[in-house]
UniProtKB/TrEMBL annotation:
<feature type="compositionally biased region" description="Basic and acidic residues">
    <location>
        <begin position="351"/>
        <end position="360"/>
    </location>
</feature>
<keyword id="KW-0472">Membrane</keyword>
<feature type="compositionally biased region" description="Basic and acidic residues">
    <location>
        <begin position="34"/>
        <end position="46"/>
    </location>
</feature>
<feature type="region of interest" description="Disordered">
    <location>
        <begin position="20"/>
        <end position="67"/>
    </location>
</feature>
<keyword id="KW-0812">Transmembrane</keyword>
<feature type="region of interest" description="Disordered">
    <location>
        <begin position="101"/>
        <end position="137"/>
    </location>
</feature>
<keyword id="KW-1133">Transmembrane helix</keyword>
<feature type="region of interest" description="Disordered">
    <location>
        <begin position="335"/>
        <end position="373"/>
    </location>
</feature>
<feature type="transmembrane region" description="Helical">
    <location>
        <begin position="71"/>
        <end position="88"/>
    </location>
</feature>
<protein>
    <recommendedName>
        <fullName>Aromatic ring-opening dioxygenase LigA</fullName>
    </recommendedName>
</protein>
Length: 373
């Protein structure tokens, strides 16, 4: 494009484009540069004008004057980037539209639950059924607000019960917590190693229980399953996601069947996030283990007991999301890629987070189903 004597464009882009179009069609002539007189008049008018609106030539106002199509091009780039993001991470848009992202943020901000001091009257409220991830394995679970590990096992205040001294009750409460930690939270035990610390806390004079546990560890089976007291998984099959196991429950003391006895009762749920041990596996599944255990404290002057040890009187277990009819001493959570095997789960779904009922209350026979994990 030509320029005038002041090195200013003499012909606008629109005029030049019109000329080129006419030239291509064989019509019209080239637009002429302004004459010297015309340029002088223009400069004089510019010098004498003083009524232009303030800011008309300011930076922001000038920057707002974009070439036609620039804004559309920017919008197109943003739109293309958005479509690419949706293709790669569709859950980001879906979560925003469904309100799941907001629910997830609310769950993160919610504080931990107060300690459970009595049996709940209802199951935990429903939460958004969000899928767990390697970065957030408790997402979409009521356990998100449960305590981490041993912090979830809080001891009640010790008092004399059933003719058993306060000191003896306090000692048993401490040992009972140590047993739960050793049997359900010790990383080595979870990987299938022998639960030496837990076994060492049990009274050897309770020979029937001791012999049964030894058989269950040596030769697991339907009638002697170590999973009845110890949580274990096969490290060749699955591995934990992170180091946290969520725990919720309570411990209390009742008078025993006879004078000079007291029962320390335990009711705890443990939530384990697991992933297949295969390289690159990223589907997280949770298994919930609930245990009800009773240890009897007895006056050694009247009963055959070992001081400082736990006498196992009763125990029950509920395993949620573990293969039915498999008694090899390990948890076996189900994953989407697993082939169907074993009996088909049936019966009304059971909420494994519902602690308002005992394990035996309304328990389905055979292989049941769970409403959530």
């Amino acid at each position: 494009m030509g320029k005038n004597d002041d090195n200013q464009p003499g012909v606008s882009d629109e005029e030049w484009a019109r000329f080129m179009e006419q030239a291509a069609q064989g019509a019209g002539g080239a637009p002429k540069e302004p004459s010297a007189r015309a340029r002088m008049v223009t400069e004089r008018l510019r010098a004498t004008q003083g009524q232009e609106p303030p800011g008309w030539r300011t930076g922001p106002a000038w920057r707002e004057r974009r070439r036609p199509g620039r804004l559309g091009a920017v919008a197109a780039v943003v739109a293309i980037a958005g479509l690419a993001l949706i293709a790669v991470r569709p859950e980001l848009v879906i979560d925003r539209l469904t309100g799941r992202a907001e629910a997830r943020e609310d769950a993160r901000k919610a504080g931990p639950l107060a300690a459970e001091t009595d049996r709940p009257t209802a199951p935990p409220p429903s939460v958004d059924p969000d899928r767990p991830t390697l970065q957030d394995p408790f997402r979409g679970s009521p356990a998100l607000q449960w305590a981490d590990g041993a912090a979830g096992i809080e001891l009640p205040e010790a008092t004399a019960v059933g003719g058993v001294s306060k000191e003896k009750i306090a000692e048993t409460l401490q040992n009972a917590k140590a047993f739960l930690v050793a049997a359900n939270l010790d990383p080595a035990v979870l990987k299938g190693e022998r639960p030496e610390a837990a076994l060492a806390l049990l009274d050897p004079k309770n020979t029937e229980a001791s012999e049964h546990l030894e058989k269950s560890l040596a030769q697991p089976g339907r009638d002697q399953d170590p999973m009845n007291l110890f949580t274990r998984y096969n490290p060749a099959e699955v591995k934990p996601v992170g180091e946290v196991v969520k725990v919720r429950g309570r411990m209390w003391v009742e008078a025993g069947k006879e004078q000079g006895q007291a029962d320390v009762r335990l009711d705890y749920s443990f939530v384990y996030p697991l992933v297949k041990a295969a390289p690159g596996a990223d589907q997280v599944e949770r298994t919930i283990v609930r245990r009800e255990i009773t240890f009897t404290v007895a006056d050694p002057r009247k009963w055959q007991v070992t001081a400082g040890r736990l006498r196992l009187s009763d125990h029950r277990v509920d395993l949620a999301n573990s293969a039915c009819e498999v008694y090899d001493g390990y948890l076996h959570p189900g994953f989407d890629a697993d082939p169907a095997a074993g009996p088909t789960p049936s019966g009304p779904p059971k909420d494994p987070y519902d602690r308002s009922k005992g394990i035996d209350e309304g328990a389905p026979e055979g292989c049941g189903t769970v409403s959530r994990t």
